[in-house]
Specification:
InterPro entries: 2-IPM_HCS-like (IPR050073), 4OH_2_O-val_aldolase (IPR017629), Aldolase_TIM (IPR013785), DmpG_comm (IPR012425), DRE_TIM_HOA (IPR035685), PYR_CT (IPR000891). The chain is an alpha/beta fold. The protein is about 45% helix and about 10% strand. It folds into two domains: about 260 residues, Aldolase class I (TIM Barrel, Alpha-Beta Barrel); about 70 residues, Helicase, Ruva Protein, domain 3 (Orthogonal Bundle). It is built from 14 helices and eight strands. Helix 11 runs parallel beside helix 13, helix 12 crosses helix 13 and helix 13 packs across helix 14. It binds ligand LKJZXN5G and manganese (II) ion. Manganese (II) ion (MN) binds next to loops.
Length: about 350
């Protein structure tokens, strides 16, 4: 079946959503969600540990089920959708990419911090050799000025990426900032441009629309917002809004609504919402996937998690530095005890 699509939606609940449920997906859950997404005609479904291939570790959180088992299961139930994987060089390696390709994935997204695109060269090249749709994913895009972002995106393009994404990992970008970033990439690149939003400031949808207006054609969504922090742009809402705008995604809006309600909602420990902690992520520009780590550290040291998150933002801590969350919490607790002793 051929589908006309103006916008290609990548559904990330089975990868970014893994952060929100502490990487506890079961094979049965992944099968049910992937099958329903396939029936709703979603073009790409990303399946991996929240931190990408090989993310299962004490540092990032142990997966309940081996991700290769989840990927294999998702591939086996999809006839229309392609399964994609995320890989952060240094966490995942070429070996993991080869393994995923053998299982039948059709897309690999190679993610780096926004100023570190150079570490993606080999992984992008290998993904292309494997015949995968290959995406460069520039995380924490709010941390770099537009010129730097363009420079890094051009590197990913030069390594062979088919699409380069502006990734608002902290949900910190405002619509005009998304627009200027996407416009700059559109002017400088020859490949597709994409946008991945987080909803910490309640701007994921507005930012996705700003990205589309500025020329982005690849947009990420997560059903029922299931993603790190306050979650991502809600796929079923995105599909409905784009339909109203006359922009074709090829997605069956009613089937998306049904799967959101009947299959995904019961998986959530709590509804995805903008609470004080997820709001602080966007406000202070902190990696969305730090949320549960900071909340756990706050509990352990008897602190307000916002104090940890704000200081993480001030220190410009980025993905891969999760160990600093506990260190920082211990330091704040020591400082507080010291001040109390002096008082
Ligand atoms: C830790 C990887 C991260 O969750 C990737 C991503 O989705 C983002 O940076 O927003
Ligand atoms: Mn994300």
């Amino acid at each position: 079946m051929s589908t006309m699509r103006d916008i290609i939606v990548t559904e990330v609940a089975l990868r970014d959503g893994s952060h929100a449920i502490s990487h506890q997906y079961t094979t049965d859950q992944v099968v049910r969600v992937a099958k329903a997404l396939d029936q709703a005609n979603i073009p790409y479904i990303e399946v991996s540990h929240g931190d990408g291939l090989a993310g299962s570790s004490l540092q990032y959180g142990l997966s309940r089920t081996h991700e290769m088992e989840l990927i294999e299961a998702a591939v086996s139930v999809c006839s229309r959708s392609k399964i994609g994987v995320l890989l952060l060089p240094g966490i995942g390696t070429i070996k993991h990419l080869n393994e995923a390709a053998k299982l039948g994935v059709g897309m690999a997204r190679i993610a780096t911090h926004v100023t570190e695109a150079d570490v993606s060269a080999q992984h992008i090249a290998r993904s292309k050799e494997l015949g995968l749709v290959t995406v460069g994913f520039l995380m924490m895009s709010h941390m770099a000025p537009v010129g730097k972002l363009v420079e890094q995106a051009k590197l990913m393009e030069s390594y062979g990426a088919d699409t380069v994404y502006v990734v608002d990992s902290a949900g910190a970008l405002l619509p005009y900032e998304v627009k200027e970033r996407i416009e700059a990439l559109k002017e400088s690149l020859h490949v597709n441009v994409g946008f991945h939003g987080h909803n910490n400031l309640s701007l994921a949808m507005a930012n996705s629309l700003a990205a589309i207006e500025a020329g982005a054609t690849w947009i990420d969504g997560s059903v029922r917002c299931l993603g790190a922090g306050a979650g991502n742009t809600q796929t079923e809402v995105l599909a409905a809004v784009l339909d109203r705008l006359g922009i074709q995604t090829g997605i069956d809006v009613y089937k998306m609504m049904d799967l959101a309600e009947e299959i995904v909602a019961p998986i959530l420990n709590a509804p995805q919402e903008i609470n004080r902690d997820s709001l602080v992520l966007g406000y202070a520009g902190v990696y969305s996937s730090f949320l549960l780590h900071a909340q756990r550290a706050a509990k352990r040291f008897g602190l307000d998690s916002r104090d940890i998150l704000v200081e993480l933002g001030q220190r410009k801590v980025v993905g891969g530095q999760e160990d600093m969350i506990v260190d920082l919490a211990a330091e704040i607790a020591r400082r507080a005890a010291h001040n109390e002793a002096l008082a």
